TrEMBL record, chain A:
Gene Ontology MF terms in the entry: ATP binding; ATP hydrolysis activity
Family stated for the protein in its record: Belongs to the ABC transporter superfamily.
Keywords attached to this entry: ATP-binding, Nucleotide-binding, Transport
Gene Ontology BP annotations: peptide transport; transmembrane transport
Domain of life per record: Bacteria
Domain ABC transporter: residue ranges: 4-251
Matching SMART domains: AAA
A Pfam family annotated for this UniProt entry: oligo_HPY
UniProt protein name: Peptide/nickel transport system ATP-binding protein
PANTHER family tied to this protein: D,D-DIPEPTIDE TRANSPORT ATP-BINDING PROTEIN DDPF-RELATED, TRANSPORT ATP-BINDING PROTEIN
UniProtKB/TrEMBL annotation, chain B:
Any single Pfam family the record assigns to this protein: BPD_transp_1
GO cellular component terms, A-Z: plasma membrane
Kinase is among the record's keywords: no
Organism: Aquisalibacillus elongatus
UniProt topology in membrane: Multi-pass membrane protein
Keywords: Cell membrane, Membrane, Transmembrane, Transmembrane helix, Transport
Name of this chain's protein: Peptide/nickel transport system permease protein
Automatic annotation (TrEMBL), chain C:
Membership in a protein family: Belongs to the binding-protein-dependent transport system permease family.
The keyword tRNA processing is assigned to this record: no
Stated name of the protein: Peptide/nickel transport system permease protein
Keyword Magnesium: no
Subcellular compartments: Cell membrane
UniProtKB/TrEMBL annotation, chain D:
Signal peptide: 1-22
Transmembrane segments annotated in the record for this chain: none
Molecular function GO terms recorded: peptide transmembrane transporter activity
Originating organism: Aquisalibacillus elongatus
Similarity comment text for this entry: Belongs to the bacterial solute-binding protein 5 family.
Biological-process GO terms, alphabetical: peptide transport
Record NCBIfam families: Opp4A
Name under which the protein is recorded: Peptide/nickel transport system substrate-binding protein
Record's keyword annotation contains Transport: yes
Amino acid sequence: MTLLKVEDLKVHFPIRGGILNRKIDAIRAVDGVNFEIEPGETYGLVGESGSGKTTTGKAVMGLNNITNGEIYFGDELLNKGNKVNIRKDIQMIFQDPYSSLNPRKRVIDIIAEPLRNYENLSKDEEKKRVKDLLEKVGLTAESMLKYPHEFSGGQRQRIGVARAIALEPKLIIMDEPVSALDVSVQAQVLNFMQDLQKELNLTYLFISHDLSVVKHMCDRIGIMYNGRYVEEGTTKEIFNDPQHIYTKRLVAAIPDIDPKNRKENTNFREQVKEEYTNSYYDYFDEDGLAYQLKPITDTHRVALPERG
Amino acid sequence: MWKFIVRRLLITSPQIIFLSLLVFVLASFMPGDALTGAIGPDVKAERLAELREELGFNDPWYIQYKDWVAGILQGSLGESFQYKMDVEDLIWQRVINTFWLSLVSVIFIYAIGLPLGILSGRYNDTLLDQLITGYTYIGFATPIFIFGLVALWIFGYILGWFPTGGSVDPGVESGSIEYILSKLQHLLLPGLSIALIGTVSTVQYLRSEIIDTKQKDFILTARAKGASERRVYNRHIFRNSILPIAAFFGYEIINLINGTIFIEQIFSYPGMGQLFLDSIVIRDYTVVTALVLLTGIGAIVGALLSDIILSLVDPRIRIK
Amino acid sequence: MSENHSHKDIEQQVSEQQKEQEVQKSPSGLRIFWREILKDKLALISLIFFVLVSMIVFGISLILDLDEVVKIDPFAIHQPPSDEFLLGTDKGGRDVFGQLIIGTRNSLAIGFLVTLISGAFGIIFGVVSGYFGGHIDNFLMRIVDFFMVLPFIMIIIVFVTIVPRYSVWTFSLIMSAFIWMGIARLIRSKALQERELDYAQASRTLGSSHTSIIFKQVLPNITSLVVVTMTLNLAANIGIESGLSFLGFGLPEDTPSLGTLMSYATNPTTLEERWWIWAPAAALILVLMLAVRNVGEALKRAADARQRRA
Amino acid sequence: MSKSLFGKFLFVLMLAFVLLIAACNSDEGGEDSSDNDGDDTEQNESDDDDSDSDSDSDQELYSIDDFESYTGEGDAIDGGSLTFGLVSQSPFEGTLNWQFYSGNPDSQVLSWFDESLLQYDENYNVTNEGAASYEVNEEDSSITFTIEDDVKWHDGEEVTAEDWAYSYEVIMHPDYDGVRGSSAGFAYLEGAQEYKAGEADSISGIEIEGEKTITFNYTELTPSLLTGGVWGYPMAKHVFEDIPVEDMASSPEVREEPIGFGPYKVENVVPGESVTYSKFEDYWRGEPNLDEVTLKVVSPSNVANALETGDVDLVDSFPADQVVDNIDMPNVQWLGMTDLAYTYIGFKLGDWNADEGEVNYKGDEMKMGDKKLRKAMWYAVDNETVGERFYNGLRWNGTTLIPPSHPAWHDDSIETPTYDEDKANELLDDAGYKDTNDDGYRETPDGEELVINFASMDSSDLSEPLANYYIQAWDKVGLNVQKLDGRLHEFNSFYDKVGQTGEDDPNVDVFMGAWSVGYDVDPSGLYGRDALFNFTRWANEENDELLAEGLSEEAFDTEYRQDVYSQWQELMVEEVPVFPTLYRAMMVPANERVVNYDISVGSGVYLYELGVTQEEPVVE
């Protein structure tokens, strides 16, 4: 049984203009996206900035109005009416650990905010829960009375995680959770998140532009371009057998640390780039948008034009 | 650009309608009417009652409003009961005075504000700058009516340098040089009073703007390239700082009008502000309504003007 | 959002500059204010002076018998200052010093009230508008636009002639009704930025209601702006009140304000020869406004990290 | 922003200023007390202010009897020019036509270039000294007027009977929207109402008997006709003929180039601000003395200064609250006369019956219904002191409701209450108003709390102190009087509250206002049973009778009429629906060089004789 099912999701932002300020066009930030996430897995959503991945995440979270489509969480349709309901079963971790924590609030108030909204706890119970949560994310209980600016970026992100898991959600949406952090801290935080996933039996929707991170974290990956999927598959499929030219290019661009392969890599990239330029119109329609996804295997789908 | 203007105009028309409604409703709540002033033993109450009926003073406000709108559509703002003349003519007589007063004030505002602002910004933290900043400190804190009153007292009464009331000496041939000089003489003190207080924000703005710009990279580059200090100031800094000031002018209109109400009262200068206060007292509704409306429209047009200038100056603001 | 109004844009430009300090926003804004004031001797003197005057004025007016102050004494008209009348008497033989005390109290009270009422309303209006954005913002900003272009002095004057019985309270309400827009606009543009910050979004994912986010999350983050604006508004409001009283559309003579005493100077003989009636009031208005502004400017500097002295 | 040393400096300066003021005070306080010891020789120059105001507080007293209304004759130079100050806070309206003007400022402008055909004596009776003489025909209730031969408009046309009739036709025209047309001269005119209703093309009661002779036929003759009732202003028919009545008031013939037949003609009008006149050589009384007159608006706050500097020679009036401060102005002579006005305090004694069009006197039902209470309130106030202290004697205790400006009708033999606290207390005790609950205030005879609401008109700088002073005075005799709404009312809301439209505000118990009195002494417009402006809503039969008798044909006999009005004045003192508080002097300053000018009516000194003794105004 799937945990999250997104069907034909569209999020359009109107462009207004003209004398009466009517809607004259729309930015199609997300334009017909389908995917499913199984419980316990980490699903990666990859794309360059502007590809609609964050918008998709926020739409699932209910932070954006969605134009069309359905989002099911378990059996429940989330977007009754137009506004997506906020479920405590879904939580989010934000990209920027600086702005996602209210600078005027102490840590205890930040972490206890969801508890206060959903659970009626006494002061002591609340304190205990916050303490537990802090310990779970590797921070000391003394942190409780401090303000966010007294922490480092990595620590802040841990606070953000503590807040997100406070309600024991099933699904956590991570919007570029480490991209604002130093590379040295990134791995640390990622590992910690993986541990947490096992411990709490969490499902992650992992949004990132960084394929190497995604490769490390995710079970399955969806690749977005201009608001549409170009390819979806298991991590292995995507990295070892990319079908779409866009995916190929992304994969090729992953830096390789081994200097021995440098020349080889450069050549390979050149090739891919050439192919990309030459065959662009084989993979995208005249508007530069991806085609419908076609299944190749049970798990692997690619956006290719109808051939023949 | 024209789309932008047309759209702004479309947005402002409901504002004007609301404004006229508001004024009308308020006016209908004011105690007394234009005939109250006629009370006396020589005038029979019956005659007043008759006139009230004839002139429609007894109609509910929406009927009066309807008539008034109908009048406007035919190009008439109505007739002033007190002055027995068309409101537009009456207001025109006074607006022209207020216009001159405002013009002189604006000229002074910029004539005083620009040099002071530039000096203060260019030589910041010198004694000169401190003098100027000191002036802006005081100027900001001084209500215009206190300043006007004291100015009238010192320069009008004690020193006798300026006339203490009116807009022109009587008997001077209209259109002659003397006439213009006399007008100017009557305008100087009230105009200066408005300007000395009103210019303060310009000085402060210009000063901080210049100090800011001074440290911007393109100025440093210009200097590095060997441009003379004068050229740097004239071509780069000044031009960069002056445009927003020009643009803010439109927003200033409403402040200017508020200022003239006080100043005209203090200097017995027959302008719109005085006409307004008088008309309130004698309940000359048509005039009150027309004046408030006109002022409102002035403010709206001013804001529009500023927006246009701003969008010309700064493309970031321009809208599709 | 879709409707672009340029005031907004100017404010945005301004606030872009503030953005950098956003990051360093620390929780102890009020402490920074305090530190800045302590550092700035002028502001400190101003603050002490203002508090002192307020205390003296409110203190004395507690023990001062209002009836005695406004008591008409036909045998003591226009007395110059003496031991009996510290600041002489006015045209009704009333003690000017007493009126100055009561008048300062009334002016300050109105200044405070108007600042609080218009401030509270403007803040709520602005924060709601900015936080929700979109159509709500569009609609609310049209209302603000409408009020902005009202010639407010004129409208207040019309209002004052209508209200049959007015006191410090009603007068403050009338004034507030027409001067809340500035702060509303400022707060709105700030709130527009704040709502885009992740912490506001995070709160929503955590199940906090809009009201709770507005009041518990967003508002605390704009307090420094609120404090600065309100302080500067206080000075302006004292000025507006005394101006209206000066024109004769303020409080009645029995409830003197500083403007009432000033308005006696429209009589040229009083202006020329009886300085004791109006000059102290004029000086007091000036000094009070200067003091409040000094404090306000210091706060403004404190709020703007680049200019902070402390 | 960098710290500004200078700003700091200024701030400290301001602070110092405040402290200085405080310090000054204690200093001066000290000197003041030494003044009392008698050694004021030590005062230095900086105390000039002080000594000035000391003399101020000594309160010099003046009396209207000290002033003449006439500048006296002098050696006027030939020609010369004069500047006349029109004292007004606001510009004049510029409706420069007697038929259409609505404010005093305009009438001041008008009186230089246009005048009435009728001349009045000092009792405001029509005489034959004017441009027209009259003859009463008692048999057919008509009056015939004959205009002098050489009365000409400024454009050289003769002023004719036709012109006079024309002014009636304009005023009674259905489209006419001015306030005139209700005085006796119109009300009693035969056929006027028919014409007004549009039923007749002309007014049947007006007969033009020749180029210069006109007869007005009245339904009945009343003395009011000859004390201001007959409309005496002709209207130049050849000028206005082609202008529709509704457009006349805004026409250039009224606003920009008005003509009249007065001693000066209009040269130039600066709307609202000033008018220049030149002499009209063909003026019917003779060639005017001055070549040129300039009229300009001077605000009340500037007028003293303008006089001192010779900026104006003469003004139409002078702000009462500044007279005393300026009475020693060296280059100015002060003219004075008793003003045609009085201040009063009235009591609400009923309401207005709109259906019947008359007052509904309710007597004892009303809070102020007890005559003794009203009289006690009269005794309780010290108008003498008010006049002396607030107006330095230039206003004084009023006695009856016909002011001494009408010497023939004012009866000064009538005893009226004057300040007597004991008497007031006695009256109140008598009437049963006693303080039964020891709150310091008297209760009604029924033991109910008595709070009297006082509506006072805000008409001058002194309105507020005066109202408060009266309230204090009543407080002293144990009456709890409160200002209605806690403040004074500007004239619009004042008249709304006392009932200008017939809807009296039931909260008003006592009100203080002022009436100006017309030439015609007949008080029925203010105190008649059917007078809407009878704001007290008091009436009784004796009053009705006396007022009717005052207007009857017998009353053409002055002695008879005097007797009637004496009785009426006495009745009003007895019944006290209203009591006058102050009579007032009208004080007009004129530059020393102004001669042959008289501010009173019927003095036999006319405007064309006005002259100056030197080319330039006398300056200190």
